[in-house]
Design brief:
The structure holds 3 protein chains of 3 kinds. Chain A is mainly alpha-helical. In chain A, 86% of the residues lie in helices and 0% in strands. Chain A starts with a helix and ends with a helix. By secondary structure, chain B is of the alpha+beta class. Chain B folds into 2 domains: 99 residues, Ubiquitin-like (UB roll) (Roll); 131 residues, Alpha-helical ferredoxin (Fumarate Reductase Iron-sulfur Protein, Chain B, domain 2, Orthogonal Bundle). The longest helix of chain B is centred in the C-terminal third of the chain and has 20 residues. The structure holds iron/sulfur cluster (2 copies) and FE2/S2 (inorganic) cluster.
Chain lengths: 105, 243, 106
């Protein structure tokens, strides 16, 4: 059920995004530096778990959300659309995990 | 008010089929005049070839809906005062999202076929030989049925829904609202088949809660609420089966 | 167009923007794999005014998408009430508030 996956991931994301926005606004005061960001993230299991969940939820949420848009605005329906979205999900998951590796390793 | 009312109204009416033009008319202004009165005046006194539909004139049959100044309305119960509030002229066109047959008449077959596809026909669980079902008026399910049951099938919601325009297979607010009122009806026996019919890409889960249907429905029905109910009901049915 | 259609359009457009932005965001963070220096040079790049402006735009999009999403969830899962029609305004206000906070912190 795509719809329930979408709403479930949305609920997860609602929390994640709220936390993400808050940390972000907190973190950028006084400028950003790699040392500062990485100092906060590296080796922090809590943040790693949080952002892994975040990336996973995005991987579910973004392609499903794009699906009706492609159908309704670009008239792209059928198997090719769903294959494309699957590829997009893989891309997001791959890049997201690579990013996590970058900031948390 | 009486002093400032102009003697005539400038009206532009769609003529032709899918391709056509707007034709201009001058129609005398009266007190308590409806949009349907204006169209009827044109047909009776100015151009007898104008095609349009109506039957009851009192908001019961659902046959008179048209686009009035770009917005779908039931014309028999829409006062001219209302649509002239911020302008001096009226543009009347056939309903959106339906094929135009001629002038203001649309082909509503697809609209009603979708009711059938959403399994919009009641099917009782008991025969006439058994005693009838007793349902309290304040039963929560019955209250939800009551909220949606007064639909007159005017297709105003269907014409207002962007998802119908973007996804021609989409069943649309009226058919889904109908399915919802039957699912909440304790006497009906076809719940599972109906849930199957309204799930998926053409059904309730394609609704983006634009609320256009709810905003425009002349009977103040909220198809959006019923559709949200369907979304949840389908999921509960799937989950219920899995466990 | 009435508020509901506006809310849905904003929700959709902000969602598209976020999907476009995400791969870049991930690649940028991934640059930390090549060491803090690579990451820092990227962060230096983001100091440009134009980049700053689009960062603010993306935060606005994120907040708007969050607000719009909560609106949809409320409409779909809460028992129907008339006040839910005005949720769009609440969502918009919240999105603007968050993006303002971000702009001030920049
Ligand atoms: S739900 Fe309302 S707008 Fe839609 S067909 Fe029924 S009465 Fe008309
Ligand atoms: S709420 Fe759903 S059915 Fe009603 S107009 Fe919007 S998209 Fe169409
Ligand atoms: S003529 Fe019957 S509803 Fe308008």
């Amino acid at each position: 059920m795509l719809w329930i996956a979408q709403r479930a991931s949305a609920a997860v994301l609602a929390l994640c995004v709220a936390v993400h926005l808050a940390t972000m606004i907190y973190a950028i005061r006084g400028g950003l530096s790699a040392a500062e960001i990485l100092g906060r993230t590296r080796g922090s299991a809590g943040w790693l778990a949080f952002y892994s969940l975040f990336v996973l939820a995005v991987t579910v949420h973004a392609p499903i959300g794009l699906r009706p848009i492609l159908g309704e605005w670009l008239r792209w329906r059928g198997a090719s659309r769903d294959l494309f979205l699957l590829a997009l999900a893989m891309l997001l998951a791959g890049l997201g995990m690579r990013a996590l590796l970058g900031v948390f390793r | 008010m009486v002093l400032t009312t102009p003697a005539t109204i400038a009206v532009r009416v769609w003529r032709g089929g899918a391709a056509g033009v707007f034709q201009a008319f001058e129609v005398p202004r009266h007190e308590s005049q409806t949009v349907l009165d204006v169209v009827t005046y044109i047909q009776r006194s100015l151009d007898a070839t104008l095609a349009y539909r109506y039957a009851c004139r009192v908001g019961m049959c659902g046959s008179c809906a048209m686009m009035v100044n770009g917005r779908a309305r039931w014309t028999c119960r829409t006062h001219i005062d209302l649509v002239l509030q911020d302008r001096k002229d009226i543009t009347i066109a056939p309903l959106r999202n339906l094929p135009v047959i001629r002038d203001l008449v649309t082909d509503m077959r697809e609209f009603f076929d979708k009711w059938a596809r959403a399994k919009g026909r009641f099917q009782g669980r008991v025969s006439r030989n058994e005693d009838f079902e007793r349902i309290k008026p304040d039963d929560p399910d019955r209250v939800q049925v009551d909220a949606g049951i007064e639909c007159i099938g005017c297709a105003v919601c269907y014409a207002s829904c962007d998802v119908v325009a973007w996804n021609p297979d989409y069943l649309g607010p009226a058919a889904l609202n109908r399915a919802w009122t039957l699912i909440k009806d304790a006497r009906d026996a076809k719940t599972m088949a109906r849930l199957r019919a309204v799930a998926g890409d053409a059904g309730c889960h394609s609704c983006h809660t634009h609320l256009s249907c709810t905003e425009r429905c002349p009977k103040s029905i909220s198809p959006t609420a019923g559709i949200a109910g369907l979304k949840r009901a389908v999921v509960s049915a799937v989950v219920g089966k899995a466990f | 167009m009435h508020v509901g259609t506006w809310a849905a359009l904003v929700h959709r457009v902000s969602g598209i923007l976020l999907v476009l932005f995400l791969p870049g965001h991930f690649i940028a963070l991934g640059s930390a794999l090549e060491g803090a220096a690579a990451f820092d040079s990227f962060l230096a790049w983001t100091e440009q005014p134009l980049v700053k402006l689009s960062e603010w735009g993306i935060v606005l999009a994120l907040a708007a998408h969050l607000g719009g999403g909560l609106r949809v969830l409320a409409l779909e899962f809460l028992p129907w009430r008339d006040w839910q029609k005005s949720l769009a305004a609440v969502a918009a206000a919240a999105a603007i508030a968050v993006s303002l906070a971000f702009a001030l912190a920049l």
